[in-house]
Amino acid sequence: MLSVVIPAHNxxxxxxxTLTALRGALEAQDEPWEVVVxxxxxxxxxxxxxxxxxxxxxxxxxxxxxAARNAGARAAAGEMLLFVDADTRVSPAVVAGAVRALRDGAxxxxxxxxxxxxxxxxxxxYLAIFMLFWTPLGYAAGCFLFARRDAFDAVRGFDEAYYASxxxxxxxxxxxTGRFVVLRDAVRTSxxxxxxNGAIGILxxxxxxxxx
Length: 212
Prior knowledge:
The protein is α/β, with parallel strands linked by helices. The chain is 46% helix and 24% strand.
């Protein structure tokens, strides 16, 4: 089974579009699947919207994305795990690529990332340059990561000592257990972080990730 884990804190605006895209991508696969939304101490309609879309909802009060993802993984039944952020849209090609890699024995992997518009021109240029450095490093982007259950359990999941860059540490840990695949197809994530943090904030975060 393929289990998709979505950590969410007050995501009533973004989550419905993510779940709609995800359902279309999952229904295109020849695999049984489930969606687990981790409701991390929300005070909006995130949980209700997830249930209306047919997802299993796990309620936690972590306020930390690594811990929320781990809670979702513990509740999931699948031997294949996909971690998708609440503001990230995946295509049938991305899900198929992840399943194919896992069925072929990969320990885990990720995908390239594109920003959804509207975003400023500098952000589009920045992302293209950043991915030139990021992709060869073989790390998964935080908004989309997949893993075989046995490999994920062997490395004890996401390291909850980290409040950021947890995807880098998990990528490294999974790579030590087996093959790690970064898909050529891209997921599309909301440009809200660009709009909220601005150029300086994004550049600082990118430098910290690349140095990590």
